[in-house]
Amino acid sequence: MDIQTTTTTRVNTCKAMLLGLTKEFMTEFLGMFILVLFVRGSAAQAMFTGGAWGNLLTYNTGVTLGLMLAIYVAGAYLNPAVTLAMVVLRRLPLMKFPLYVAAQFLGSYAGAHVFYGLYYDALMAYANGVSRVTDANDTAHILASCPIEYTSVLNGFLDQVIGTAALIVGILAFTGENNRGNPKGLQPLAFSLIIIAIAVSTGLNPAPLNAAQDVSPWLFAVVADWGLDVFR
């Protein structure tokens, strides 16, 4: 094999690898974009109508359907904790972990942008043109989960550990070696039902269970208009 042939082969291999990584990045990005748009939209509709067009159940249904649609469309992990679990279990190469997590955070941030544009008029009307954080017309928690005042740091930490553990165990139960007979097309539905079970049982704290879904909209809220008060 001459030098030119070897070089061409290496170039083609690099192109194929780059194309594959780009596809995986866009898969995670698109999935998180869809998920955040559904999750935040469900929360906004429930808040702005005073519960007339939504409540806790419809919000969790929106979360579930958003997750299910995102998985069907993108087939992605959509969660840094789940992605890390796949790395630990050697189902995902360690070198891909930063790429996946970056795509998840960026997709979530983009979803928050689009949500804000879609509901901007409703946000301004609800809060009389002021982006509020602490009073009765608080709109910040539409973009990200805000713990109830009595929730301690320890309680919040345990909430996330237990909820995330339940999520990962549930996912592994459906995707493990002993369950290969399960129809792959039903896995997104199964994962979504796990999410809604966790949400309706531990959501009071609340339990975002997804750092990408939670942190990126927080950061967007800081940039948009709410400022650093969102971290109070």
Cα distance spanning the termini:
65 Å
Instruction: Please work out how many helical segments DSSP would assign.
Output: 8
Mean pLDDT: 80
Assembly context of the chains: single chain
Low-confidence stretches: none
Order of helices and strands: HHHHHHHH
Question: Radius of gyration in whole Å, from Cα?
Answer: 20 Å
* Helix share bin: 55-70%
Shape: globular
Beta fraction:
under 5%
Q: Structural class of the helices, strands and pairings?
A: mainly alpha
Q: Care to count the β-strands? A: 0
Which short descriptors sum up this protein?
232 residues; transmembrane; water channel activity; Aquaporin-like; glycerol channel activity; mainly alpha; single chain; MIP; 0% strand; 8 helices; globular
Detail the topology: elements first, then pairings:
Layout: H1 3-48, H2 56-74, H3 80-88, H4 97-118, H5 120-126, H6 153-175, H7 187-202, H8 211-226
Notes on the protein architecture:
With 232 residues, the chain is an all-alpha fold. It is built from 8 helices and no strands. The chain has helices at residues 3-48, 56-74, 80-88, 97-118, 120-126, 153-175, 187-202, 211-226. Helix 1 (3-48) packs antiparallel against helix 2 (56-74), helix 2 runs antiparallel to helix 7 and helix 4 (97-118) packs across helix 8 (211-226). The longest helix has 46 residues, at 3-48. It is globular. The chain starts with a helix and ends in a 6-residue tail after the last helix. 35% of the residues are buried. The model has no long low-confidence stretch (mean pLDDT 80).
